[in-house]
Amino acid sequence: MIKKKGPTIQDVADRAGLSKAAVSRYLNKSIRLPQETGRKIDEAVAALGYRRNSIARRLSKGGSETIGLVVPEISNTFFSEMAEAVEQTASERGYNLILGISRNHPDKELGFLRWIDDSIVDGLLFVTNRPDNRRLQLDIRRYGAVVLLDEDIPGTAQDKVFCHNVAGARDATRYLIRTGHRRIFHVTGPVSLMSVQERLEGFRLAHEEAGLPCPDAHIFHHDYSQRFGREVVGQILSHPVLPDAVFAASDYIAIGMLEELKRNGVRVPEDMSVVGFDDTALACLVTPKLTTIRQDAAELGRIGTERLLDALARPETPRGVTRIAASLIVRDSVRDTRT
Questions:
Q1: Could you check whether 65-162+297-324 and 165-296 share the same CATH topology?
Q2: Tell me, what's the pLDDT at 132?
Q3: In terms of Cα–Cα distance, which of 269, 221, 226 is closest to 245?
Q4: 240, pLDDT greater than 90
Q5: What contacts 59, CB < 8 A, 6 or more positions away?
Q6: 41-71 per-position pLDDT tens digit
Q7: Between the CA atoms of 301, 307, 308 and 309, what dihedral angle is there, to the nearest 10 degrees?
Q8: Among 156, 162, 277, 317, which is most exposed with the fewest C-beta within 10 angstroms?
Q9: Rounded to whole angstroms, how far apart are CA atoms 205 and 171?
């Protein structure tokens, strides 16, 4: 049995009354045509049932027309919001997306970088939230087509998109001070992470501006997890000085704390105020609703994707760091002690 040959791009061009080159460039999104001309091509494609040979098209362009996004986890709504924005932005530019979930495992992260060598992707958006032992740094420096999101990897010169961590943390701490709190603890992630260092800097700056002490004994490091949030409550409640407020460097830490504080009979915000960072979707679902610093995960994803695709199109484009705004979102987890 002879397989019937499908319609070709020349058939589409003939039906639309246009050149094959114009139709090809229109379908590849490399040319803008008048609305009426584009409509003729779309109608010809629909009438003939034409389907592009995507493999041949990609080979002819010398790339996969696919980018990758590597995140530590996808159950965290921050990363799922980011992934959705990346996919939408990539699709608008004619690219597909492959998602890699590293679970912060070093070998998995390095393996995803090999996607570029294997031509699975043309470039990567990369998120890690663990300290690097220089293995990532050394590998990422080999690749031009990598954009770092949310967290830095020191020693790399890639495009990077972060939020204003210092300003956000300072605003959170200022708000607590402005509402009458004076014994403020800080619960945060691994010491060597950029976001941890910058949020701690903002925390200290707000204390310095207010003329308040900021003892190291009031700062607790571990990781950005609900588990740590629950575990640190025991350390806080057994501390010689009980805080009247806690600034947690992530919503996940703050949410873990809310659970454990309630279990220990500590009322939030009546007995202790809590502020988070990120403004994940969960911040509105917990009780009390969490006052937090918003960094827009979708904006990180959108800008990062644009930077990556621009770099793929124009490799000579200068690289740099882009910062997005961090803004205070006031809800129910802080009590104004002055009233």
A1: yes
A2: 86
A3: 269
A4: yes
A5: none
A6: 888 888 888 776 544 555 455 566 899 999 9
A7: 110
A8: 317
A9: 10
Topology of domain 65-162+297-324 in CATH is Rossmann fold (3.40.50)
Superfamily of domain 165-296: Response regulator (3.40.50.2300)
Amino acid at 188: T
Model pTM above 0.70? yes
**Residue 214 and residue 173 in contact, taking contact as beta carbons nearer than 8 Å:** no
- Provide the residue type at 120 as one letter: I
Burial class of residue 329 in the structure, from the number of CB atoms within 10 Å of its CB (0-12 exposed, 13-18 middle, 19+ buried): middle
pLDDT in tens, 192-237: 999 999 999 999 999 999 999 999 999 999 999 999 999 999 999 9
68 bridge partner residues: 98, 124
Q: Which residue has the higher pLDDT, 201 or 11?
A: 201
SS3 per-residue string spanning the chain: CCCCCCCCHHHHHHHHCCCHHHHHHHHCCCCCCCHHHHHHHHHHHHHHCCCCCHHHHHHHHCCCCEEEEEECCCCCHHHHHHHHHHHHHHHHCCCEEEEEECCCCHHHHHHHHHHHHCCCCCEEEECCCCCCCCHHHHHHCCCCCEEEECCCCCCCCCEEEEECHHHHHHHHHHHHHHCCCCCEEEEECCCCCHHHHHHHHHHHHHHHHHCCCCCHHHEEECCCCHHHHHHHHHHHHCCCCCCCEEEECCHHHHHHHHHHHHHCCCCCCCCCEEEEEECCHHHHCCCCCCEEEEECHHHHHHHHHHHHHHHHHCCCCCCCEEEECEEEECCCCCCCCCC
Cα separation, 68 vs 86, whole angstroms: 9
Percent of the chain with pLDDT over 70: 94
Structure tokens given for 123:
């470039």
Q: Enumerate the domain spans of the chain.
A: 9-52, 65-162+297-324, 165-296
Report the candidate in 262, 231, 264 with the shortest Cα–Cα distance to residue 248. 231
